[in-house]
Amino acid sequence: MKHFEANFDGLVGPTHNYAGLSFGNVASLNNAAQAANPKAAAKQGLQKAKALADMGMVQGILAPQERPDLHTLRRIGFSGTDKEVLQKAAAQAPAVLRACCSASSMWTANAATVSPSADTHDGRVHFTPANLVDKLHRSIEPQTTGNILKAIFSDSRYFVHHQHLPEHSSFGDEGAANHTRLCQEYGHAGVEVFVYGQEATNPQAIRPKKFPARQTLEASQAIARLHRLDEDNTVFIQQNPEVIDQGVFHNDVIAVGNRNVLFHHEQAFVDTKAKLVEIRAKLEGDIHFIEVPTAKVSIQDAVKSYLFNTQLLSMSDGKMVIIAPTDCAENPAVKAYLDELLTLDTPIQKVEYFDVKQSMQNGGGPACLRLRVAMNDAELAAINQHVLLDDNLFTRLNAWVDKHYRDRLLPADLADPQLLVESRTALDELTQIMKLGSVYQFQR
Ligand SMILES: N=C(N)NCCC[C@H](NC(=O)CCC(=O)O)C(=O)O
């Protein structure tokens, strides 16, 4: 039986725009109200995903969510025809309308936390959609995320789906963006590392002063319980609150792991030394901690370039490749670091750069765009095969984007009823292409 890591990338939806919705995410705030190009955004994402498929990785695609989210607008009291709902929301609650139009489900690292069957007591793959309660525009994602995941990983012999955690700040959960699995081989039991921003129920605990800590210890512990992990294969680490205050709003902006490598910034964690010792004790065998010093890459450069929001992947020869945004190549300090890294004696032997600037301008790098699922052959055979990216799906999705997407979108365009029609037409067709069934509210 073969074991491997599959990556499921979020397809950028037709309403991709820059609305400045994410306080604490520097790029989102800096690019607010710029013109976005949804067509280019979707194609950049597909290009990256296809390149990975061509490298021999198992690569899937997750459908975008229904936006504008008329269901939420009606739930908060806007009524009438769809057009009237949009017009009233634009006039009376423009910020809420913007939140209900975000294409943020593209960042599937925040879709869910996934524990592979090798780690769980019942030998099944466990999924918990993230509740994303810290941001209004993201808090409306989990229900549909769960529907989409269930439509793909439907076989209950292999897959277990949990409800998202209670919708309260004590259980703020941002999914796999704060979760890394380390292991020797994908099929061996690994150590699941949960990085949290704050301990919500302990007023004495340290926390950031300026920006929100979106992930709580309480949420991470709940996920570990639900996924039936135990103490021997979990480690909980607090993210350094000082870096959250400098724009590191998720752990995947400051650290990334794959198999027996943890690539992280010197300032990423609280209590780093003791936590790395704990990981070493729980994960038997060889382990590489690649720590990037501030003297070589400042926090500011890490946040700007997204050096750590890279995908660290194992190639068929067992060596590792970093999938980086072109922003890393454009940042002299980061480029120099990556060039040097390739000369060192570590499993990382290659860096590939991809232009995902449309997503980057909202604070989403290559690693934000994907949800990792470590699987085996039998599990892969049990999923909906129509979401796996091959030449045929790539061609069909590009043609679908060309047919339905705009190449310019401003926040002011979000109330345009025609955009709603375009989005629904596109998504309806997509569910047929990917054989998803009726996952959207407007189809029910
Ligand atoms: N690091 C990971 N895993 N994900 C990145 C998510 C970016 C996303 N940006 C936004 O939601 C901006 C939307 C806007 O401003 O229009 C967020 O902050 O939640």
UniProtKB/TrEMBL annotation:
Q: Does the keyword Isomerase apply?
A: no
**Catalytic center residues:** E174, H250, C368 (nucleophile)
Segments spanning the bilayer are none
What are the UniProt keywords, alphabetically? Arginine metabolism, Hydrolase
Against InterPro entries, the record matches this protein to:
AstB_sf (IPR037031), SuccinylArg_d-Hdrlase_AstB (IPR007079)
In which residues is substrate bound?
A: 19-28, 110, 137-138, 214, 252, 362
This enzyme catalyses: N(2)-succinyl-L-arginine + 2 H2O + 2 H(+) = N(2)-succinyl-L-ornithine + 2 NH4(+) + CO2
Describe which pathway this protein belongs to, using the record's wording. Amino-acid degradation; L-arginine degradation via AST pathway; L-glutamate and succinate from L-arginine: step 2/5
Q: Does the keyword Hydrolase apply?
A: yes
What are the recorded GO MF terms, alphabetically? N-succinylarginine dihydrolase activity
Quote any Pfam family the record assigns. AstB
The source's superkingdom equals: Bacteria
Entry EC no(s): 3.5.3.23
The protein's job, in short, is:
Catalyzes the hydrolysis of N(2)-succinylarginine into N(2)-succinylornithine, ammonia and CO(2).
Tell me how this protein assembles. Homodimer.
Q: Which family does it belong to?
A: Belongs to the succinylarginine dihydrolase family.
The protein here is known as N-succinylarginine dihydrolase
Starting at the broadest rank, the lineage of the source organism is:
Bacteria, Pseudomonadati, Pseudomonadota, Gammaproteobacteria, Alteromonadales
The gene name reads: astB
